[in-house]
Amino acid sequence: MPSICPVCNGMQNLGTPCPRCSKSMEDYGQLHSLLAPYAPYEEDELLQQSNDSVYEGYCQHLACCPHCNFSMPVKVSLVPGTSTVGPTP
Ligand SMILES: [Zn+2]
Ligand SMILES: [Zn+2]
Fold this sequence. Notes:
The chain is an alpha+beta fold and 89 residues long.
């Protein structure tokens, strides 16, 4: 089933309130793309693993508060989509 992240696709803002100051946090992008390994040849393997297990059903984003500099990972629920985003076999 094709699932897409509404935040990655620009359909939705992250809109997470900051737990410290209650202001709106900003999306700093997908968490696992920010944590990409230094060695390029390991990247494919890591992405495959995360697609299989950890990130199933969710897209992990990093939310950052511009007001107090607090940041935290946020899980965004994937939604069914018919777009061409994503790998095609
Ligand atoms: Zn996303
Ligand atoms: Zn804050």
